[in-house]
Amino acid sequence: MIILSGGTGSPKLIDGLRKLIPDEEISVIVNTGEDIWSSGVFITPDIDTVLYLFAGILDKNKWWSIVGDTHHTFQQMKELGQNEILPLGDRDRAVNLVRTEMLNDGLTLMEATDEISRRFGIKANIIPMSDETVTAMIETPEGRIHFQEFWVTKKGIPEVLSFEHEGAEKAKLSPAAKSVLEKEDLVIIGPSNPMTSIGPILALPEMKEILKSKKVIAISPIIGNAPVSGPAGKLMASKGLEVSSRGVAELYKDFIDIFVYDIRDDVLNPEELEAMGIQAIALDTMMTDEEKRVNLAREILKLF
Ligand code: FO1
Question: I want to staple 191 with a disulfide (CB 3.0 to 4.6 A). Which of 9, 80, 187, 304 is the partner?
Fold first, then answer.
């Protein structure tokens, strides 16, 4: 089984899936469109979240970074006037330093991810969507800034005039992603931001075409007119898309078979999707505790 993952929502679902199927049977194609260089370190937040999840060290209160991590290095750097965009923990920084060293030694992002997975004893197959760098940049009235600066430093407050993924036009689907997609028939599009988390994966050449030949279930990250978390709303609105599950379904309609939306959603009309040949299924998608994560995962597995 393949899961397309970005931050928070998809890792929560993977957490539930892990209780039902062995890690060895899980392949995760992970967004790298929010990656950022900071103080000489290459940080790839969505890959790290998935790595830490499978390594059993993810902070499940925040759904990023390592549980119990300290911030001594970040604080010391701040005192020296180095204000990093992402407040990186010390252990998190260690992982990112190891990765950066591997990249500097000539490894691809896939090879570096594989090696770090191996060292953590991870059995799942964690695959960066691409080995090329793709960077989400947001145009605000005060200028063009990195997604992480918009979301973390500026708390998602600036108006979003537009956004784009720099490097996306040159990026290719990673060979490992391609190879796993050749072997597996079931794909889950996790409930992550359809703009900056799932969007970059879908934008890669061939991806949408490949998905058309698979059985694809997408889970909406939006309930009513508000995302469960994160900046999806503002970013969708900046592209003129309706901020709703209907807006998400519109983005995915050409290559999905089943669309899962929340039981509380009062915007999506399932008949509209059925008319497009997409099965619409209402489930409880609020994964606020482990039981709910496992329940949602179980219901999704029943759909295949
Ligand atoms: N997100 C936040 O909202 N605030 C943070 O301070 C923060 C720190 C952070 C550190 C390392 C890391 O890998 C991710 C971190 N994130 C933080 C998450 C990140 O900004 C995005 O939410 C992810 O890119 C997921 O889309």
Answer: 9
